[in-house]
Amino acid sequence: MRFHILSGLLLTIIFSSESSGQQYFQQKADTKIEVTLDDVSHMLRGHIHIDYYNNAPDTLTYIYMHLWPNAYSSDRTAYNQQAVENGSTDFYTADKNDWGMIDSLRFEVDRIEVNTELTGQKDIVILRLNEPLLPGEQVQISTPFKVQIPETFSRLGHSGQSYQISQWYPKPAVYDKDGWHPIPYLDQGEFYSEFGSYDVQITLPKNYIVMATGNLQNTEEEMWLAELSRRDVQEYASQPDEIPSSGEFKTLRYTEDNIHDFAWFADKSWMVRMEEFTIPESGQPVKGYTAFFPDHYKGWDSSIQYLKNATLDYSREVGPYPFRSVKAVEGRLIAGGGMEYPTVTIIIPSNDPKEVEEVIIHEIGHNWFYGILASNERKYPWMDESINSFYENKFMKSGGDLVSNLEDLFINQMRVTYQAQAVNLPATDYTYTNYGLDIYRTGAEYFAWLEAYLGEEQFRAAMKSYYARYQFRHVYPEDIKAAFEESTATDLSWFFDELLGSEHPVDFRIRDIRSDGQNTTVKIRNNSPVPVPAVVVLYEPGDSAGGRNYQKVISRPFTGTTSVTIPNQGIPYKQGFIDPVTTDHVSRNNHYRKGSSRHFKIKPLAFLNNTEYTSMAIAPALGYNYYDGFMLGLLFHNISIPYSKFTYGIAPVYGFKSKNAAGTGFLSYKQYTPGSRWLHHIEYKLEGKSFGWQGSQTNVAERLTSRYIKVAPELVLNIRKPYARSPLERSISLKAYYIKEQKLVFSMDPSDSLYKPSIGQYHDQYYGRIRYRQDYASTYNPYGFSLDMQAGKTFGKISAEGNIKIDYHFRKKALYARVFCREVF
């Protein structure tokens, strides 16, 4: 006990001296758990002992404890509230027998029972200490516990007798320089925990295969896993779908130091692969394991190689892997494509080798980013997910496939419509869509941009410096910024302070490229208000973009216009493009060709707006109405993904019955207002159409058809949401209508006394409309209403309409109600 106290004080002194005069401390939570799995009732029964060391300069009178299995105990938890907001109703509509919880708790501190206080969250409690915990002292927290394992809705769960046991035991919240960090369990938003040593014993039926955090201490079990790893897939052909549990039990022991979580996974049907290898940078021997379902052998056949390669790649690029085991398992996870825990990761079922490799790389990387460099994932998700996704892309050399291209289009769509969010926000602030796009894609692209700016060697050295300095510590944004700036001797405020915190899309334009015998000067315009560096690729006239002779030009961070001059080694560069690494969302102004005006293209049918040209699409236009009959023409438009601010669609057609020209069309321009607190964007619209609306062939040889023409300009004010995740959408519309109508006039023809039609003069009508519309598009009980006021020369009208969907507590069951009222003057 004395050794632990002294070592805790020593750690405090060391960390304080390393923090440039700013005091750093880190609590420690050494954890021992004995647990037994009951696979009939899907229950865990166990006991936990936590040696909690107060290395803070503060005296503690209470400790927050996380009881995360209770996230599944009610439909009033933070987990379910967020899941429903994100559109997932599986847990909310599930049978309560499939829910989960942790109970049978009796907390003791130093063997004396303590009072437990409830909080506003079902999965967070407060332990009131019987005596204050002074700086440098430690206490032992212990309790029995029982966990009812839920069906798999998120992370902790079971699918039949396949178990994923994570976020499963009582766990102290982090206490750091900012105080306590009690956080409820969420699906969108990960974790923040204290480092310590773990010693965990798991008792369960003997024929379960277990993959867990840490180092297996049972020689007999290691030999069995080695034997399983030599089995061929054909040996599993006769394996039944449901394997009975053994009547014998085994107790497995796992230990590991310098970790902040413990998870384990158990299944009786897995195939196993194992390989031992060595980390070249440190000489550390590592045992690698993968476990997967036999029917996914095709996707997982090379999984142990993926695991090994990822571990070696991260060790080379970031820092040596410090643990003696690394594992990846296939399981029935619902939360994302995979989930990381120290030395072990779980991956959703897949039989696609590329997907398996990609997710293994990403999740193994989390051993570095969050496992070793332990940031607050809930508050700073970019510090692990964005950086880790950057390395995933780097090692996979991903991109160019259909999924990647579609994601790029969606990201650009969010950027051009100002729906993207800044990368440095807490996980809980993001919409469900933006959490995936902004953190995992945009954030990763930003770090690729930083690497291009610094150069690969400087970037690698900076990341290694960050790792070496802060491994096994809680890290904050200021830490990675300081490590990078000190390593590179470069001010990187443009990246860490400006770019990561900006919602403005990036848009560069090359204004000019001039070359003489020795130098090339590139003039660049930054159309965004964020000071960032441009990366331009120059190439020879006649050469393809990025061909053999090319040179990169990197500017300083700037706004407005800047020029960069570089030696050109005698190559008269006159062509160039903005490197996609800059995440520039307007591709059509990214290319520059001296003397070339090829910036417009006509394309057939619909198109994707991801080229260097301003494009117009042409498609056949078909239509029918009673007076014009069948209509055929052409549609000219620029409707695309991502949208342009200016869009149009014009469809001139010919009516074969009326033998007249007709058509419809619209113009629209969206003006975004990122500086406004209440207005998101203004839309200027102009609609027009002309068709037949009366027709007759009575007593005449040729059918006569009168026309109408409608022109309707509109101004729409789209009100900003109160916050990004809000389902509330509001708009105010002002619209004017100008309508010209011809009417058929019947009069007697004196020559034959027959009444015959003729087309009369146009009659003009004018009226206006003001509309307020509000929609609350929540998952449950959504509603909407609108208020219209219309007025013309001879009338006035007020109308209101409301719609609501009242959900029952049953899937796909609801009551729909509509109310409408109108008054005409």
How would you explain this protein's 3D organization?
- This protein has 825 residues and is an alpha+beta fold.
- Among the domains are: 1-194, Sandwich (Immunoglobulin-like), CATH 2.60.40; 508-593, Immunoglobulin-like; 600-773, no CATH class.
- The strands form 10 sheets. Strands 34-36-37-39-40-41-42-43-44-45-46-47 form a 12-stranded mixed β-sheet, with no helix packed on it. Strands 1, 2, 4, 5, 6, 9, 15, 17 and 18 form a 9-stranded mixed β-sheet that branches. The chain has a 5-stranded mixed β-sheet with strand order 20-21-22-24-23.
- It is globular, with a radius of gyration of 33 Å.
- It starts with a helix and ends with a strand.
- Residues 1-21 have low confidence and may be disordered.
Give a short overview:
It contains 12 helices and 47 strands. With 825 residues, it is an alpha+beta fold. The strands form 10 sheets. Strands 34-36-37-39-40-41-42-43-44-45-46-47 form a 12-stranded mixed β-sheet, with no helix packed on it. Strands 1, 2, 4, 5, 6, 9, 15, 17 and 18 form a 9-stranded mixed β-sheet that branches. Strands 20-21-22-24-23 form a 5-stranded mixed β-sheet.
**How do the strands of the widest beta sheet line up side by side?**
34-36-37-39-40-41-42-43-44-45-46-47
Strand tally is 47
Form type: globular
Distance between the termini: 88 Å
Total helices: the number is 12
What structural category do the secondary elements indicate?
alpha+beta
Poorly predicted ranges (pLDDT <50, ≥5 residues)?
A: 1-21
Average pLDDT across residues?
Answer: 91
- How would a textbook summarize the main sheet? 12 strands, mixed
CATH topology of the domain at 1-194: Immunoglobulin-like
Specify Rg, calculated over alpha carbons: 33 Å
| Oligomer state of the chains in this structure | single chain
Roughly how much helix do the residues carry, as a percent range? Answer: 10-25%
Second-tier CATH architecture of the domain at 1-194: Sandwich
- Name the beta content range: 35-45%
What is the CATH C-level name of the domain at 1-194? Mainly Beta
